[in-house]
């Protein structure tokens, strides 16, 4: 302990009764969370109002006392919002700062607010309320991004580009189809988020420190006042459970993984080597030394920020590991990773939702790229199969034609019938229908296929689904 640990000053800590000396000044700073948990103030006040309202309903507080508390809390909320509220590290966290100020203002009634409650169920309630609101904001941004993807996919339903495996040209696809692949990833993320919300949306209030309380509380009522679906079922679990936060981070990690994959493609596509898209200038930055540069910073940053979100997931899993029941101070460490994950996800979604509708497809360049690399080779093999050649043999024939194409510098669609026929005499004039890129994509006309018609119908289905959210 510090030499200069002050003698116990009167009544600075709401829990100071059994202590005979003041907290070491370093320990005070070390254990305080007010620096980062003050952002819970709004939900802390809402939770306290619900608690006081419930206490009045069951007769623990008079209506007058309840009203004094509510008015006092609303005045504090206003001060916090206009920046005049004095936060104090001595008062450790957001909960004690608000409660102590309330008592200072309204006197003895303020001290009654904490009846039948502990900071343990209070903080669990606050975080759930906070995360629930953030989930709703994130759901809206995700929907905005998905809507943007659908609009671009619709516009580019027939735009042809190369599809890749191993980052080598594989088969022609439509750009709309590619964007719908991103849409599907995000759709699963959305479903995971909604599933997480169900488990977030339960009220731990009333679990008190760990065992519940002797007051005749009405947990269903306070849960209802806060818009929770129901009270949680076990008081020990209620104060110690943070898996709703871990679940959120798991959702966030997968979402960021998907955004990082899309980012990577945007970075590649906007390079002069690919030249598939143009990212508007407002999403890019220049170089201080190379005047020609236009760098895709936004997708690069989104890709980079995936790392910190993955880190937060691991932090929370490790934080929770081996914790005995019930509440432990370890849990105070849940906030910074959680808050940063929430912020990062919101920012990245916002960037993407703004950027996606603004990208331009460089159609000619995509088309040219799709022509290179013998992307219709599979179509030719399928054509030969249609003329009764076994697939393995047709694969061999097309392989030889590709070798010829490499030597002669010609794509399959550029060869004449006279050049094609020596490789197989079943090849006729109709081969050119399948060798064109348009023919190739149009032929993949089944659910989930790349044909423009399928893209349009997938967009229509998805738009209907989004409209019912
Ligand atoms: N600041 C604490 C946290 O974030 C609040 C709960 C503290 N409870 C306690 N018994 N020390 O977890």
TrEMBL record:
<keyword id="KW-0456">Lyase</keyword>
<dbReference type="InterPro" id="IPR020557">
    <property type="entry name" value="Fumarate_lyase_CS"/>
</dbReference>
<dbReference type="GO" id="GO:0005829">
    <property type="term" value="C:cytosol"/>
</dbReference>
<dbReference type="InterPro" id="IPR000362">
    <property type="entry name" value="Fumarate_lyase_fam"/>
</dbReference>
<keyword id="KW-0028">Amino-acid biosynthesis</keyword>
<dbReference type="Pfam" id="PF14698">
    <property type="entry name" value="ASL_C2"/>
</dbReference>
<feature type="domain" description="Argininosuccinate lyase C-terminal">
    <location>
        <begin position="374"/>
        <end position="442"/>
    </location>
</feature>
<dbReference type="GO" id="GO:0004056">
    <property type="term" value="F:argininosuccinate lyase activity"/>
</dbReference>
<dbReference type="GO" id="GO:0042450">
    <property type="term" value="P:L-arginine biosynthetic process via ornithine"/>
</dbReference>
<dbReference type="InterPro" id="IPR009049">
    <property type="entry name" value="Argininosuccinate_lyase"/>
</dbReference>
<keyword id="KW-0963">Cytoplasm</keyword>
<comment type="pathway">
    <text>Amino-acid biosynthesis; L-arginine biosynthesis; L-arginine from L-ornithine and carbamoyl phosphate: step 3/3.</text>
</comment>
<dbReference type="InterPro" id="IPR022761">
    <property type="entry name" value="Fumarate_lyase_N"/>
</dbReference>
<dbReference type="InterPro" id="IPR008948">
    <property type="entry name" value="L-Aspartase-like"/>
</dbReference>
<keyword id="KW-0055">Arginine biosynthesis</keyword>
<dbReference type="InterPro" id="IPR029419">
    <property type="entry name" value="Arg_succ_lyase_C"/>
</dbReference>
<comment type="similarity">
    <text>In the N-terminal section; belongs to the lyase 1 family. Argininosuccinate lyase subfamily.</text>
</comment>
<protein>
    <recommendedName>
        <fullName>Argininosuccinate lyase</fullName>
        <ecNumber>4.3.2.1</ecNumber>
    </recommendedName>
</protein>
<feature type="domain" description="Fumarate lyase N-terminal">
    <location>
        <begin position="17"/>
        <end position="311"/>
    </location>
</feature>
<comment type="similarity">
    <text>Belongs to the lyase 1 family. Argininosuccinate lyase subfamily.</text>
</comment>
<dbReference type="InterPro" id="IPR024083">
    <property type="entry name" value="Fumarase/histidase_N"/>
</dbReference>
<dbReference type="Pfam" id="PF00206">
    <property type="entry name" value="Lyase_1"/>
</dbReference>
């Amino acid at each position: 302990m510090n030499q200069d640990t002050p003698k116990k000053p009167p009544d600075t800590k709401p829990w100071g009764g059994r202590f005979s000396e003041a907290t070491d000044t370093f320990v005070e700073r070390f254990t305080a969370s007010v620096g980062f948990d003050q952002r819970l103030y709004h939900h802390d006040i809402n939770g306290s109002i619900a608690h006081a309202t419930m206490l009045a309903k069951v007769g623990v507080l008079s209506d007058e006392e309840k009203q004094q508390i509510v008015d006092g809390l609303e005045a504090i909320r206003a001060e916090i919002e206009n920046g005049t509220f004095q936060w104090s590290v001595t008062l450790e966290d957001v909960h004690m700062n608000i409660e102590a100020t309330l008592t200072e203002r309204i006197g003895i009634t303020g001290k009654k607010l904490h009846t039948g409650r502990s900071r343990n169920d209070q903080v669990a309630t606050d975080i759930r309320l906070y995360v629930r609101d953030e989930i709703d904001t994130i759901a809206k941004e995700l929907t905005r991004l998905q809507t943007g993807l659908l609009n671009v996919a619709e516009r580019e339903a027939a735009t042809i580009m190369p599809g890749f495996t191993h980052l080598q040209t594989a088969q022609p696809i439509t750009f709309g189809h590619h964007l719908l692949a991103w849409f599907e990833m995000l759709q699963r993320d959305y479903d995971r988020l909604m599933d997480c919300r169900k488990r977030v949306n339960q009220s731990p209030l009333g679990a008190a420190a760990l065992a519940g309380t002797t007051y005749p509380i009405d947990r269903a009522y306070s849960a209802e006042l806060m818009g929770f679906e129901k009270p949680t079922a076990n008081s020990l679990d209620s104060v110690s459970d943070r898996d709703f936060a871990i679940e959120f981070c798991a959702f966030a990690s997968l979402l960021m993984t998907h955004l990082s994959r899309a980012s990577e493609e945007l970075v590649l596509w906007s390079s002069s080597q690919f030249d598939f898209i143009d990212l508007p200038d407002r999403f890019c930055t220049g170089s201080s030394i190379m005047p020609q540069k236009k760098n895709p910073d936004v997708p690069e940053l989104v890709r980079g920020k995936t790392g910190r979100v993955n880190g937060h997931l691991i932090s929370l899993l490790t934080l929770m590991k081996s914790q005995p029941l019930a509440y432990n101070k370890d849990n105070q460490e849940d906030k910074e990773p959680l808050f940063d994950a929430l912020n990062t996800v919101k920012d990245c979604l916002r960037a993407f939702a703004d950027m996606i509708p603004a990208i331009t497809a460089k159609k000619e360049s995509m088309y040219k790229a799709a022509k290179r690399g013998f992307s219709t080779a599979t179509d030719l093999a399928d054509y030969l199969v249609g003329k009764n050649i076994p697939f393995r043999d047709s694969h061999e024939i097309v392989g030889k034609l590709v070798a010829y194409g490499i030597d002669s510098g010609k794509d399959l669609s550029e060869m004449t019938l006279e050049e094609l026929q020596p490789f197989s005499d079943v090849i006729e004039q109709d081969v050119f229908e399948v060798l064109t890129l348009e023919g190739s994509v149009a032929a993949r006309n089944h659910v989930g296929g790349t044909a423009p018609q399928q893209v349009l119908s997938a967009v229509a289905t998805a738009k209907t689904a989004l409209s019912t959210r």
